[in-house]
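Case study 2.
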Amino acid sequence: MNEHLENLKEIRTLMERSSKFLSLSGLSGISAGIIALVGAFMVYTEKVKITGNSDPKGILDAANVEGDFKLYVFKIALFTLLGALIGGIYFTIRKAKKNKEKVWNNLSKKLLINLTIPLIAGAIYSLALVQQNNMWMAASSTLIFYGLALIFASNYTVRDVFSLGICEISLGLLSIFFTGYTFLFWVIGFGLLHILYGGLMYFKYDK
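Prediction:
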């Protein structure tokens, strides 16, 4: 009986490896979350320095995001994205080498395509909102489009990514209604959720 169960587990593992890209590392999520928290902290401290107000509410409101501060927020967002991408690529390659798997194959291509299309659409839409000085809505949009990207990508990797996508979309939609707290929703979505998800993924798949 145990032998049959072991055989079934092996068959299931082989089927997953042939249909899912399993080299995504939980450490990628943890690093992305830490980078997001550092970026958010830099934006917050800059806002306090300019306004003298330590209340995190309304940081991305139109009245608070003008001129140099608007450019500063954009730069931090860009560096946060680049840092998360570099960390994600590094830890994915490291895990693939450890498991003696190829990083670039048909599955990773499909994963990348499904992840990239919603992200590009979201980036263009968010940039248009930033140009119109609607930073709080842009921040909400990044959460929503990122969640959609994760849901599309989950078809080609572990299903846990789907759950993360739902959480990101939910936070993005909530932040639209609670406008003064958009910055806090962004911190939770890209910072804390990534660290929590990355930790769970690490202990579930990387250990």
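The two ends are 27 Å apart (CA to CA).
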